[in-house]
Amino acid sequence: MNTVLTMRGIVKDFPGVRALDHVDLEVRAGEVHCLLGQNGAGKSTLIKILAGADNPDAGELSWQGRPVRLSGPAAATKLGIATIYQELDLCDGLDIAENIFLGHEHARAGFTRRVSTARAATALLERLGHGELRPDTLVGTLPAAAKQVVSMARALSYDARLIVMDEPSAALGNDEVSNLFRIIDQLRADGVAVVYISHRLDEIRAIGDRITVLKDGRTVAAGLPARTTGTTQIVALMTGNGAVATLTHQAPTRSDTEVLRVTELGLAGRFHDLSFTVHAGEIVGLAGLVGAGRSEVLETIYGARRPSAGQILVDGRRIRPGSTTAAVAAGLGLAPEERKSQGLFLLESVGRNVSAASLPRYSRFGWFDRRRQRADTGDLLARVGVRPADPDYPVRGLSGGNQQKAVLARWLLDDCRVLLLDEPTRGVDVGARADVYAQVRRLAERGVAVLMVSSDLPELLGLADRVLVLRDGEIIHTAPAADLTEQDIVAMIMEGSAL
Ligand SMILES: Nc1ncnc2c1ncn2[C@@H]1O[C@H](COP(=O)(O)OP(=O)(O)OP(=O)(O)O)[C@@H](O)[C@H]1O
Ligand SMILES: [Mg+2]
Fold first, then answer.
1. Which of 157, 170, 222, 227 falls between 20 and 30 A from 349, CA-CA?
2. Number of other residues whose CB lies within 10 A of the CB of residue 182
3. 1 Cα–ligand 1 center, Å
């Protein structure tokens, strides 16, 4: 097979960090090339260079055998390289068709242009199996999965020969991942090369042809066969040792004290009549398809959405619905799914972000104990494995997975009574996942009530004590996690069949 892309000796320095240290990557036409590595290994940095979005400090790039220099994103696009970023870069204020054709609008003017653009957009969306998306829908109103489809449609609109996908499955549920894989298979059959970044080894086995592994900004393995290379070997290359994070079920720490009670909670058009409790020390998992309303349940409890019916009680006291101020005062915390838009102040340091929720704890008689705050923060960053574990580092400079860990760290430092976790390990590498699990368990041991949404079923079953299954806006099943298998949950969320 012919090589479409070769990157050699790529170096990229950021202040104080060498993100890429002579990285090599070789990609062939019609292959799915997986790029693996721990959080902060340099994957996103490498593909930003490939996309022309960032300049390397050294190294060479050749495209279809010819050396090239990418002066900017437009140059990469012109060659036929399209990138779907980890944090999608769509314009929320524009509609779907405008986003797809942004920068290369159809040439004709006015009304005819709108019509032809809409038609072309629909054709691309249909090719992706999402003909139901209307070209004139504002992108800002779409859920994460649909936004990603729009991003893919944009890549297809350029007739790209290489499509780079940075953790495309992170925002997707199991059914949407199968749809994504179907699209990738088709791209491969068309001779398009795909560079696929994911932390999920099962996906790499399912869709990948070859693997390149980065560790601390270096290529430690290139072109390994994706299906036959052993998991232990891959993890060993990524981490430097062979320890795979396995989630063994812990003895529940649930106490008799009921902390969160939700009664007949409803959100117009999304869910209705939800009633459940979470006890101190208990971890309750919410299972369901993406789009089933799981995030909305958390957001409603947190007061970010106004319920159409029902009550939320913390420690037996009703909290004012639709008010995050009231929710926070009652001891509720939310680690949201879309960390970039909801979870972090990107321009601030990691330390300020992490301690944002717990400032009162360090203030006494009007005196702010900055030293203790910094020490606690640094300690916590190290415990959840944020790299670098430096409170002064700008959040913007952290890798995607490290930003996610920082969001979690904030709530781990805070003294909340109820912690609402939305996809807690999305984008977190296999090694660091174990640290996150251990911290969530510790919180439960300290008596915090945890309500968690996760599309990763082994994680849901391994971490939660009890699982609620949400389908069509209702809880159709509740059971101890120990009594459920992954197959049970898949059957219930897909077909609605109870056990
Ligand atoms: N704009 C920036 N400023 C400063 N440091 C940066 C910047 N972008 C990336 N880095 C640093 O470069 C290193 C590589 O980050 P990168 O985002 O490429 O990691 P990654 O492999 O994509 O990780 P993840 O799996 O978490 O997404 C990290 O140490 C990160 O902190
Ligand atoms: Mg990344």
1. 170
2. 12
3. 32
